[in-house]
Specification:
Largest sheet: none
Number of strands: 0
Oligomer: single chain
Strand content: under 5%
Helix content: 40-55%
Amino acid sequence: TGHSAVIHNPSYEAFIKRLASANVPVFDPAPLLMNAKRATPELPLYLATDTHWTPPAMELTAQALAARTRELVSLPPAASSRFTTVEQS
């Protein structure tokens, strides 16, 4: 069964306030993941035996973090790809 609210460490709110007072941007993926779970409950976002994210959760979070980063900073155009991928089993 899942939770209907994000669960944070008791000191989380104070920590976020300290970061905000120092003008440090914060990206918290918890609400994003909770909304994704509500929208597609059949999609596992965490591994069955621990708290690590599944590949779909990683992709969702990476896309949202990239979008947030583009809102906050101007980055130079990406250089041509220096990396290749090779699928292996």
